[in-house]
Amino acid sequence: QQKGTYTVLVSDNMSEDGLKPILESSATHVIRENIHETQVPLETIDALLIRSATTVDSEVLKKLPNLKIIGRAGVGVDNVDLNAATAHGVVVINAPDGNTISTAEHTFAMLASLVRNIPQANQSMREGRWDRKLYQGSELRGKTLGIVGFGRIGAEIAQRARAFRMNVLAFDPFLTQSRAEKNHVKAVTLDEILKESDVITVHTPLTKETKGLLNNETLKKTKKGVFILNCARGGIIDEEALYDAIVSGHVKGAGIDVFEEEPAVDHPLTKLPEVITTPHIAASTSEAQQNVAESVSQEVLDYLTGSPAPHA
Ligand code: MLT
């Protein structure tokens, strides 16, 4: 194969090390530019590598008549119109494993920070204050954590919660009794999660079924003083409903990494003292980024050169 037979456009920022399979292959010619800014003729592109910043809808796909495969360096494929991709004969693959640990660790870091007011206390000291009373927190030991969505990330969170001596409930329509037992969690209904949890964390993809899963109605069923976490996808929790539930004092605090619309600059939730936020960085570690870039670039290369892609 001649170098450059296949043109691969890497539209989002990705780990250099992780991209080695396609950078070093003699079969690919790699361009690392945003799809909306590149001067490369779009009709020459065979493969597109993206993270969450590039949206691929039917308008974008129409401009890419030669496109064969989209590699999403991450889990969520909600930024790709899968029906349109299928209609255009384009395969979409993701990297389902590579950022599991980073996302679980970030969620746990958010939880620990939230219940001890660490970001707020840190900010107060930066501002020259010494407010010990204001930042009294609560222990995690003995508290009930409700995990909504018990896939890879949910299971890793359960393990960390057990190390903190929390009781763990899990709701997932696909959770079997044996998997629940193996992970030492109690499989329950969504209603039970809502009623019994001191902390609720969501770890589902964003789909028609999960959009607004926590909303005005469901939040009303939660315990007064509950903490809410979303390090999965903006939109699983209705942001206005969460805002209102915090302002009313029903929800005690929230840790939010993802937003309905990103970038979420000056978002109302960032203005509430009970809320701690991060700019969609749960998977942003050098390890996770290397893992996901390596996984998609290897699979894209295999697909272009004729081997099957396991995550299609
Ligand atoms: C994912 O879906 O893998 C994460 O949200 C990380 C990302 O979007 O890059």
UniProtKB/TrEMBL annotation:
Which terms does the record give in the GO molecular function aspect? NAD binding; phosphoglycerate dehydrogenase activity
Enumerate the UniProt keywords alphabetically: Amino-acid biosynthesis, NAD, Oxidoreductase, Serine biosynthesis
Q: Carries keyword Metal-binding?
A: no
Q: Which reaction does it catalyse?
A: (2R)-3-phosphoglycerate + NAD(+) = 3-phosphooxypyruvate + NADH + H(+); (R)-2-hydroxyglutarate + NAD(+) = 2-oxoglutarate + NADH + H(+)
Name the Enzyme Commission number(s) assigned to this protein: 1.1.1.95
Top EC category: oxidoreductase
| Keyword GTP-binding set for record | no
GO:BP terms for this protein? L-serine biosynthetic process
Q: In which pathway does it act?
A: Amino-acid biosynthesis; L-serine biosynthesis; L-serine from 3-phospho-D-glycerate: step 1/3
What does this gene product do? Answer: Catalyzes the reversible oxidation of 3-phospho-D-glycerate to 3-phosphonooxypyruvate, the first step of the phosphorylated L-serine biosynthesis pathway. Also catalyzes the reversible oxidation of 2-hydroxyglutarate to 2-oxoglutarate.
Q: What protein family does this chain belong to? A: Belongs to the D-isomer specific 2-hydroxyacid dehydrogenase family.
Name used for this protein in its record: D-3-phosphoglycerate dehydrogenase
Organism of derivation:
Alkalicoccus saliphilus
Q: Which residues of the full protein are shown?
A: 10 to 321 of 537
